[in-house]
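Design job #97: recover the sequence.
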């Protein structure tokens, strides 16, 4: 029935507004194809580096030190500030749609499912997410609350996305990938920047930033932003998922001489995010659907010191404090996290480049019981993480062949000492070719949701009149999820105008999360009244493998015309281990990720003042959720009215009035609407 409803709505007749948006998009596409650009475009041409220059871009996520992306033995993709602006992304999850191998699906108006090479969920359990090196992965439910990860999008310098395990450098939970959002230095954001706009979904938004300097060595910036967004399209007309947010922050960079850099930055935010929950109680009405608001707030403060010594060694010390307040209709949490990290890059010792580091994190949580069917016991605890790592990059053949080997040691309050080793080989037969291979062992450590969590579900009324419940009980023996990953990659610059990046992988998993029945129905009197209980538990009963590849070509047709895209293929095969009593978790996990994804982007500078960007996206069906395949398009048309003033029109999901991307829980599918907005920007 759900599939039929979705197909009916997806094929509904467009409104006059829908037709108008489509006609405008097609008109602009035709104009870009027919109108030649003047020969002397100068600075008004697309602000993209040449392919050779792009291959020299330095990234820090693979090894915590600057290395050239083209010669990194990892599957890395860099989303630049130009990419973000040209796509018209208004949030970090939307920007991640541009990276190959990353599955971005909008669940409703303020929630996303994001996975890398499979395992897409709302909390992205196997993906480690960082903002300027600050981990935003939560040990409460093992993942990232994407709705509260925000910053001024104009301040983002780049987003580095590693597909594949990164545990040797970044530690636990970097199983399927690492996403590192890196903002610009304060020296790059001087002056005033103001932007504002609105449309049918992004109803209203405003951003303001001001940067300056205090003397020649100290730079700063401050920013504030806010938005209100409408609900998406609901088959039951219960529009619960509206969203309002305000956020402010600052950054200061102090270059103390030639060898020392000090950075201090912080953010504060407050949000109201509509959501639908299904609280369960042992008293009537037992279970009901509740539409309410999640009151979300928090902040962070981070300091970083980086020093280059006289003999060429570099070390970095970073510490941060993060505060999270969540008050949702069915539970609440207050969390305080303290983290410190030290990394030392030793200068070359012959053929060796040594990197080592230490880290510690303490995260204290207090959980608030709102309904009796969802509790944490104990309701207060401190999650701990202690790490150490060592890595050696050995030059086997000068400028041709190198071997990188290392391991991360970690200990948490949930686990004893564990290891995350990796070995990576890089061969560069020429300046325009790179071939690499890797083996990595990675872990996802247990979370509060597996070891301290009690969750009840209402089943109905038994023959004798007693109410029946199923309850997932805490599992103090939940073990880390394990991955052994094998990767092979190839990069090629084919002349000055064509480049492509190919990455393939085979990942073997065991001890994966599942849901297990642990016994028959029994009579339980506490909590009252008496009821029948079917006991269950989160276990480690799944194993299997994933395999696939991603290819990302780019073609510079001319100085003004850039075409790039990606194709990602994924095959997943998961099943129960011999002793598992899993109730059927594997098909839901496998069926929550698409087998095929295609993205094609076309960026064209029409004249000095006009630019058009068009994006086509295809995502195959999510077979385990009843979500059909969809194709859609996005566009951005920008008109630079003066050196500092720009007007842009952005359209998302233009090829149909609405479509589903991911199943919500609970409730029917939420359909993502076609949307458009205008934005006016003043400043640099």
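Job complete. Output follows.
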């Amino acid at each position: 029935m759900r599939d039929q409803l979705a197909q009916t709505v997806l094929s509904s007749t467009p409104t006059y507004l829908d037709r108008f948006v489509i006609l405008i998009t097609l008109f602009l596409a035709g104009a870009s194809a027919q109108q030649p650009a003047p020969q002397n475009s100068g600075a008004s041409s697309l602000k993209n580096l040449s392919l050779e220059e792009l291959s020299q871009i330095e990234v820090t996520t693979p090894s915590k030190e600057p290395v050239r992306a083209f010669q990194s033995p990892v599957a890395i993709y860099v989303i630049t500030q130009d990419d973000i602006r040209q796509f018209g992304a208004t949030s970090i999850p939307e920007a991640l749609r541009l990276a190959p191998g990353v599955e971005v699906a909008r669940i409703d108006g303020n929630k996303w499912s994001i996975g890398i090479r499979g395992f897409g969920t709302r909390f992205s359990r196997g993906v480690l997410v960082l903002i300027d090196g600050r981990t935003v992965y939560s040990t409460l439910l093992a993942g990232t609350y994407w709705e509260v990860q925000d910053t001024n999008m104009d301040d983002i310098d780049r987003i580095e996305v590693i597909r594949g395990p990164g545990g040797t450098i970044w530690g636990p939970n970097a199983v399927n990938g690492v996403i590192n959002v890196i903002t610009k230095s304060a020296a790059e954001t001087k002056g005033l920047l103001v932007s504002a706009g609105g449309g049918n979904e992004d109803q209203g938004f405003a951003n303001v930033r001001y940067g300056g300097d205090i003397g020649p060595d100290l730079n700063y910036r401050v920013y504030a932003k806010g938005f209100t967004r409408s609900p998406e399209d609901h088959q039951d007309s219960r529009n619960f998922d509206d969203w309002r947010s305000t956020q402010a922050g600052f950054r200061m960079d102090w270059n103390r001489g030639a060898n020392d850099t000090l950075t201090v930055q912080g953010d504060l935010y407050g949000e109201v995010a509509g959501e639908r929950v299904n609280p369960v109680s042992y008293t009537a009405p037992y279970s009901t659907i509740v539409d309410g608001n999640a009151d979300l707030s928090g902040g962070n403060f981070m300091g970083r010191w980086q020093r280059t010594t006289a003999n060429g060694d570099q070390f970095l010390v970073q510490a941060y404090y993060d505060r999270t307040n969540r008050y949702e209709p069915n539970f609440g949490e207050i969390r305080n996290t303290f983290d410190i990290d030290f990394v030392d890059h030793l200068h070359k010792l012959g053929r060796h480049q040594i990197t080592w580091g230490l880290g510690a994190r303490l995260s204290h949580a207090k959980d608030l019981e709102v309904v009796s069917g969802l509790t944490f016991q104990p309701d207060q605890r401190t999650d701990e993480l202690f790490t150490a790592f060592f890595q050696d990059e050995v030059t086997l053949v000068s400028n041709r062949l190198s071997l990188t080997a290392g391991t991360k040691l970690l200990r948490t309050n949930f686990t004893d000492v564990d290891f995350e080793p990796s070995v990576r080989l890089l061969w560069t037969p020429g300046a325009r070719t790179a071939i690499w291979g890797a083996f990595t062992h990675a872990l996802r450590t247990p979370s509060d949701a597996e070891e301290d969590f009690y969750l009840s579900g209402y089943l109905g009324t038994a023959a004798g009149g007693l109410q029946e419940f199923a309850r997932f009980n805490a599992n103090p023996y939940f073990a880390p999820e394990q991955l052994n990953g094998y990767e092979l990659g190839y990069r090629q610059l084919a002349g000055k105008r064509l480049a492509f990046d190919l990455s393939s992988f085979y990942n073997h998993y065991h001890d994966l999360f599942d849901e297990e029945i642990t016994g028959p129905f029994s009579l339980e009197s506490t909590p009252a009244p008496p009821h029948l209980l079917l006991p269950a538990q989160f276990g480690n009963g799944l194993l299997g493998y994933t395999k696939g590849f991603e290819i990302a070509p780019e073609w510079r047709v001319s100085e003004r015309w850039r075409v790039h895209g990606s194709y990602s293929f994924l095959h997943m095969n998961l099943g129960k281990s011999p002793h598992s009593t899993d109730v059927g978790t594997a098909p839901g996990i496998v069926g929550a990720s698409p087998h095929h994804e295609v993205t094609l982007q076309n960026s064209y500078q029409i004249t000095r003042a006009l630019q058009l960007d068009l994006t086509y996206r295809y995502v195959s069906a999510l077979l385990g959720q009843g979500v059909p395949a969809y194709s859609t398009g996005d566009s951005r048309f920008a008109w630079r009215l003066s050196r500092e003033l720009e007007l842009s029109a952005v359209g998302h999901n233009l090829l149909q009035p609405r479509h589903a991307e991911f199943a919500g829980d609970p409730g029917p599918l939420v359909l993502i609407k076609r949307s458009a907005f205008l934005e006016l920007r003043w400043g640099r």
